Amino acid sequence: MEFRKLIITEDGSPSLHNEELKESYHSRRGALAESQHVFIKNGFYKINKNNFRIIEFGFGTGLNCLLTLLEAKNQTPMRTIEYVGVEKFPLKASEYYNLWIELNKQVAVDDINPKDFYEKSFEMPVELLSNFLLKNISIDFLKINPEVIGTFDLLYFDCFGAQAQPELWGEDMAKICADVLNTGGVLTTYSSKASFRRALEKNNFQVGKVPGALGKREMMIATKL
Question: d(Cα 56, Cα 65) in Å, to the nearest integer?
Fold first, then answer.
């Protein structure tokens, strides 16, 4: 029996619910709306480069990557992006098949092979577009080695919440975030957890708050100094 269950959130977009952790991958009020607000509006559009690298901690359903790909596809001038996803527990075909059908109703990327997106990308880099390269890594977040994966301009911090995985919201994780970002690099996350903000500040981040998604009071955006 799979431990992830497909759910449809209030805005009609799909997500998954982790039955073991009792956590959903997105807000039940709207997966698509949340990702657009947190990671595209307050992440992707904060980077003023034509060629840049993005890393996501918590690739999960791939929704943040799909939305980023659409932005890369539709923007003029074209922006070239290398996207690295980190996901300790990649989706199996039995889990992503129906999810992909529902995702494509929302984000219209039916020209992409889901096997390339969810499986092949864990084996080798996959060129999803001429200007968009995806590589996924299956590893524990706390074992990420910046000397191996390099540094990035943007970090989508989309781990499960601190209630489910408190170890991912402490100083060790904040240091890894600092190590993988270039100077001036941006970290965006749905959370506004005060202890994580302080941990980021101790690791040379300037942390700001903006209104969160779907009525949530606030979320964090941090810049590596």
Answer: 8
Residue 68 domain boundaries: 30-91+113-224
Half-sphere exposure of 18 (CA within 13 A, CB side): 18
| Angstrom distances, CA of residue 5 to CA of 45, 63, 122, 170 | 32, 16, 22, 28
Percent of the chain with pLDDT over 70: 99
Pairing of strands 181-189, 152-157: parallel
Residue 146, domain member (yes or no): yes
* pLDDT tens profile 28-46: 999 999 999 999 999 999 9
Sort 69 into a burial class: Cβ within 10 Å, 0-12 / 13-18 / 19+: buried
Would you call 164 helix, strand, or coil by DSSP?
Answer: coil
User: Is residue 13 situated within a structural domain?
Assistant: no
6, part of any domain: no
Predicted TM-score (pTM) of the model is: 0.97
Q: What is the total count of domains within the chain?
A: 1
Q: In what order do the strands lie in the sheet with 80-86?
A: 126-129, 132-137, 80-86, 51-57, 152-157, 181-189, 219-224, 205-210
CATH number for 77: 3.40.50.150
DSSP-assigned states of every residue in 176-210: HHHHHEEEEEEEEES---HHHHHHHHHTTEEEEEE
